[in-house]
């Protein structure tokens, strides 16, 4: 058995030690530069105002342009470039209709892409690059409904590369030169994106999972061997506690005893991030969004037009989007400004309010999950399960407004649902397995408890110090592995 553990550590270490070294380097980079994205806050801030004097046709008229049989699950009045448009989502597809002419947008030209880029960054000059399906900075599955994507290069100081939706003509991603440069040493390296978008696309998930699993075995076997080889009582003839006299082996042993634990923690939590073998995908009940809404989202019977809704709103509210919303069978419009602030418009009563009726939210929530409500809590501050990250991080840029309703259900999966009390919009769901994943991945991988994230720069110093230890451990492992292969 002992020999087997030595052989596992030696040969699996040769396979993954270089990858583990790169993971430590790229992990530090990702603390400060994330994978390119366009956050909701950035997108809203750069949209033109919706103007009731020139916008818009009624939603039922716009819906007539949709392909036959399309039942929208969401409707938004927004803008692509300077042109207002209705966006209808149905399943994994999105359909855009010109809000002035009522014409279905069947294709976005290079000129449309340039115009959208110019509105998004009015101080820079755009240059059309090409039309692509996917590239290094657009692996995100959330962009699938917008493919193909137009690429437009801006001449701003950051040499920003913009990606324009081929379905709607809106800007859906931006990647600055700084992000692109550092990502080759950051997220691109960390997530092994060299294997994405090519002939190994289908194997990418398995490659990451099994390399991570190998890393876990290397860390465990190395920890066991390190303890075996350490003289807790007495010393070796050299006078040292370690039997290794050769400098690299000696340092690998010493650094391993100090940092094998954190190395194991990070590699294991990286493995958990991939949801290997679907261990976090349980039989939790699905959210019944239609039951929550209380009715189908039917444009033909909608009682209030977009233009009339805009006229109801205060003149000092610079509306960027209108979102169609059903809550407990009642029709609302949610008006959103450039800062993400909202107003609720009761479409039947044609009345504006700051928040949705709390009784309607609770009534609708009782039908959202097929289980009784066990507890309702209004969170006034972030906690371990509902918290914000900086925009550049993997989970950053997502809305985590406060206060927020947390509703716990008495189902077998112990489901929690977060709902925005201002609008009644469901923000997310966490079942018991997902909460376990929150600790095994998010916490162990990035120490993301709110109390720790608010303790910077101590959080930075601790993670960088531990990363340097893991880097030294992996680096000495690379040297030892190369020597072994040369033999």
Descriptive report:
This protein has 487 residues and is of the alpha+beta class. The protein has a domain at 2-33 and 198-280 and 454-486. Helices cover 38% and strands 19% of the residues. It is built from 14 helices and 15 strands. It has helices at 2-30, 40-46, 59-63, 110-120, 177-183, 187-190, 204-228, 247-273, 289-293, 306-312, 358-368, 432-446, 450-453, 458-486; strands at residues 74-80, 83-90, 93-98, 126-132, 149-154, 161-165, 171-175, 319-327, 330-337, 342-346, 351-353, 373-379, 404-409, 416-419, 426-430. Strands 3-2-1-8-9-10-11 form a 7-stranded antiparallel beta sheet. A 4-stranded antiparallel beta sheet has the order 4-5-6-7. Helix 1 (2-30) crosses helix 7 (204-228), helix 7 (204-228) crosses helix 8 and helix 8 (247-273) crosses helix 14 (458-486). The protein starts with a helix and ends with a helix. 32% of the residues are buried. The model has no long low-confidence stretch (mean pLDDT 93). InterPro entries: PepSY-ass_TM. Keywords: Membrane, Transmembrane, Transmembrane helix. It comes from Herbaspirillum rhizosphaerae.
């Amino acid at each position: 058995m002992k020999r087997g553990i030595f052989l596992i550590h030696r040969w699996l270490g040769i396979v993954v030690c270089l990858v583990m070294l790169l993971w430590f380097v790229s992990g530090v980079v990702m603390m400060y530069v994330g994978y390119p994205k366009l956050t909701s806050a950035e997108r809203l801030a750069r949209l033109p105002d919706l103007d009731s004097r020139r916008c818009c046709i009624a939603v039922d008229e716009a819906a007539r342009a949709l392909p036959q049989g399309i039942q929208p699950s969401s409707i938004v009045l927004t803008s692509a470039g300077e042109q207002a448009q209705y966006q209808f989502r149905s399943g994994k597809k999105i359909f855009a209709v010109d809000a002035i002419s009522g014409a279905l947008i069947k294709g976005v030209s290079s000129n449309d892409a340039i115009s959208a880029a110019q509105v998004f960054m009015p101080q820079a000059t755009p240059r059309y690059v090409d039309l692509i399906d996917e590239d290094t900075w657009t692996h995100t599955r959330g962009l699938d409904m917008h493919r193909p994507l137009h690429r437009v290069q801006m001449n701003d100081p950051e040499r920003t590369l913009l990606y324009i939706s081929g379905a709607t003509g809106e800007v859906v991603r931006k990647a600055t030169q700084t992000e692109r440069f550092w990502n080759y040493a950051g997220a691109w390296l960390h997530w092994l994106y060299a294997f994405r978008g090519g002939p190994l696309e289908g194997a990418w998930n398995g490659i990451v999972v099994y390399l991570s699993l190998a890393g876990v075995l290397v860390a465990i076997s190395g920890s066991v061997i390190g303890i075996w080889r350490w003289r807790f009582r007495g010393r070796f003839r050299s006078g040292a506690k370690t039997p290794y006299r050769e400098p690299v082996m000696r340092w690998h042993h010493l650094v391993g005893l100090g940092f094998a634990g954190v190395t194991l923690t990070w590699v294991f939590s990286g493995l958990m991030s991939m949801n290997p073998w679907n261990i976090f995908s349980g039989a939790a009940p699905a959210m019944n969004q239609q039951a929550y809404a209380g009715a189908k989202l039917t444009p033909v019977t909608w009682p209030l037009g977009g233009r009339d809704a805009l006229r109801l709103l205060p003149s000092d509210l610079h509306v960027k989007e209108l979102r169609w919303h059903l809550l407990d069978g009642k029709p609302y419009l949610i008006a959103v400004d450039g800062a993400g602030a909202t107003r609720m418009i009761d479409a039947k009563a044609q009345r504006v309010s700051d928040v949705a009726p709390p009784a309607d939210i609770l009534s609708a929530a009782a039908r959202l999950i097929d289980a009784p409500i066990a507890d309702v809590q209004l969170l006034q501050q972030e906690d371990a399960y509902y918290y914000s990250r900086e925009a550049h991080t993997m989970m950053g840029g997502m809305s985590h407004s406060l206060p927020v309703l947390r509703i716990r259900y008495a189902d077998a999966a112990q489901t929690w649902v977060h709902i925005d009390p201002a609008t009644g919009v469901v923000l997310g769901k966490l079942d018991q397995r997902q909460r376990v994943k929150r600790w095994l991945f998010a916490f162990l991988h990035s120490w993301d408890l709110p109390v720790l994230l608010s303790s910077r720069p101590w959080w930075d110093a601790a993670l960088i110090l531990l990363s340097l230890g893991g880097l030294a451990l992996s680096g000495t492992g690379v040297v030892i592995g190369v020597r072994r292969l040369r033999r």
